[in-house]
Amino acid sequence: MTGKIIFGGAGDLPISPFTKGSMVFNKTCAWRNIKPVIDINSCSKCMICWKFCPETAIDIIDGRPAIDYDYCKGCGICAAECPGKAIKMTAEEK
Ligand code: SF4
Ligand code: SF4
Question: Ligand 2 pocket test: which of 58, 61, 87, 92 has the largest number of ligand atoms within 8 Å of its C-beta?
Fold first, then answer.
């Protein structure tokens, strides 16, 4: 198979385990040098970013994605997968 698979929303993706698990003791934010910022006005609330985040660092609050910067490692997967380009990776402030 070649090319990118396009998902309409998180409901199109398989069910997967979703917990911070042992990561609550290992704040992966220490690895980050760029961070994702969501433009909530451009967000369709599809929750694909929530589904793809490998650190379970995106929570759903009031039906919207919210990044937990204690655990976001700045990998950029959420920004790459966001169909509406609502997530921009920006330089981390130190
Ligand atoms: S930020 Fe992007 S991927 Fe995440 S819910 Fe909004 S539109 Fe979907
Ligand atoms: S940059 Fe990576 S770790 Fe951070 S919220 Fe996006 S997908 Fe998750």
Answer: 58
pLDDT digits (tens, 9 = 90+) for 14-64: 777 667 755 666 777 777 899 999 999 999 999 999 999 988 899 999 999
Closest protein CA for atom 8 of ligand 1: 46
Tokens standing for residue 35: 């961070």
Domain 31-91 class, CATH top level: alpha beta
Q: Which of 53, 55, 20, 21 is nearest to 38 (CA)?
A: 53
User: Which residue in this structure is represented by tokens 């929570």?
Assistant: 59
- Cβ contact 87:38 at 8 Å: yes
Return the residue matching tokens 């698979």. 5
pLDDT confidence tier of residue 4, bands split at 50, 70 and 90: confident
Measure 30 CA to ligand 1 centroid, in angstroms: 24
* Residue-level pLDDT at 12: 82
